[in-house]
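Here is one such protein, fold included:

. . .
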Amino acid sequence: MASLYHEALHRIFQEDTSLVARAFDRLLGAAIPEPRKISVVDSDLNECKAIVRRGDTLLLVEADPDRYVVIVESQTETADDKPLAWAYYLSHAAAKYDALPALLVISRSRSTAGWSRQFHRLGLPGLPSLIVCPLVLGPDNVPVITDLAEACQDVSLTILTALIHACDSEVGGILNVLAPALSTIDPDIAKDLAEFTEAGLQGTPAQALWRALMSAMTFPYQSELRSLGHEEGRADEAARMVLRVLERRGVAVSDQVRDRVLDCTDSAALERWFDRALEATTADEIFD
């Protein structure tokens, strides 16, 4: 079963279909013609029941004079058999939708992104009949967004950068501007995107930071899952997340540090300690 963060890396393009055009333009420098329409289409690429072939997200981009089918793949690790599947996706999707195909791979792993970006040659040694070279977005080529004005300008793109940089120290800066940026859009949409972001940060210390931001701060869209109903409860949750981040990063926590964090009821202080906990080498550093 696919993990939550695997799903989030490609489903963000379903949440905001126009993001694919902006990602090509701003992150890859490969602008496609102005789309007239972008639709999420069936990602089932089966030809017979004996072989199951399903891409992650397929977007049909209708522009003039052509139309394109963009296959968005979330890649968590390298896999020797994946280039063959990608070649199938590209050829079959092009034929099925009568459109020019493009393969966009998203990964939060630098090594996986680098591997995906290679020319994958299929055929005889030294005489390939087919070469697959995906377009790739990873931590090595996607800039972080830490400016609030920029985050407000494109919330979906900011979420995408946060998910891609989920394992990097810079993610704290992205999340700190993403939280207030979400308050500038429709609260119901923002609430869904806030929970979507939490799922996409699965398995990283950044998920604990995001939960703390949702618990310790008040936003119109604040997730019901994280709203504890009173300030004392929010501070207690935030304090526990500070300790969890330190422990997940392997930083030793003394009884004195643990007691100081758990006794704190100052939300602003807990937010500062969270930011520092993402990079601290000793527990005492979070108080500096």
